[in-house]
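User: quick one, sequence for these tokens?
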């Protein structure tokens, strides 16, 4: 029977075991905006969780045509 020549250290053993169960996260569609999110987390796009607004998002204001003309 094959026997290892040297003992595997704790850190090497744990590193090897850590990669065994790596899987892609399950994603589901946000009921409000439809973007893909991790379950049981607030949506990063719309900031809602279970129909409530829980994250205040900063919305970029669109430049008006006059501001564009001043820059250009």
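Assistant:
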């Amino acid at each position: 029977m094959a026997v290892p020549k040297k003992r595997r250290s704790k850190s090497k053993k744990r590193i090897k075991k850590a990669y065994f169960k790596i899987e892609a996260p399950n994603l589901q569609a946000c009921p409000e905006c439809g973007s893909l999110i991790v379950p049981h987390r607030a949506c990063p796009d719309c900031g809602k969780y279970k129909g409530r607004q829980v994250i205040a998002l900063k919305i970029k204001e669109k430049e008006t045509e006059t501001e564009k003309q001043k820059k250009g």
